[in-house]
Write a structure and sequence with these properties.
136 residues, Immunoglobulin-like, four-stranded antiparallel β-sheet, 7 strands
Length: 136
């Protein structure tokens, strides 16, 4: 009796998964991102990878995913300009590899941590007695 192994697509899924997806959010406004999404290419070989597809989604399996970009193999980062609008509910960055035949079904995932810094109750006491001038 012949042995039945895993389908070749399954082997490609595991072999061509990117790793170490990161984003340091440099935009300090709520519901906005800014910075560089980066990842390590699949190891030890990227010969079948033609593109990387980067999405925002509601969860790690890609619910309501929205494409950010499709990038050629060899490009391992995507820059997001400051003030990039993060739609409500989109909480995950997904990076898929794509060959000539198919897009990987299981992406590398990063949970988005939206940096949010607000300043409240800022005041200055002007002790310079000249009208219209502030002391340094």
């Amino acid at each position: 009796m012949a042995s039945v192994g895993k389908p070749s697509q399954y082997r490609l899924e595991l072999h061509y998964l990117v790793s170490n997806v990161t984003l340091v959010d440099l935009d300090l406004d709520a519901q906005e991102l800014g910075g560089v999404i980066s990842w390590h290419p699949p190891e030890p070989d990227v010969s079948l990878v033609e593109t990387y597809s980067v999405y925002l989604a509601e969860d790690a399996v890609g619910a309501n995913r929205t494409v950010l970009s499709n990038l050629a193999a060899g490009t391992n980062q995507l820059s997001l300009a400051a003030d990039f609008d993060l739609a409500p509910g989109l909480t995950h960055i997904l990076v898929y590899t794509r060959s000539a035949l198919f897009e990987q079904s299981s992406p590398a995932v990063l949970n988005v941590l939206d940096a949010n810094v607000s300043v409240f109750n800022v005041s200055i006491t002007d002790i310079d007695l000249d009208d219209g001038e502030a002391e340094h």
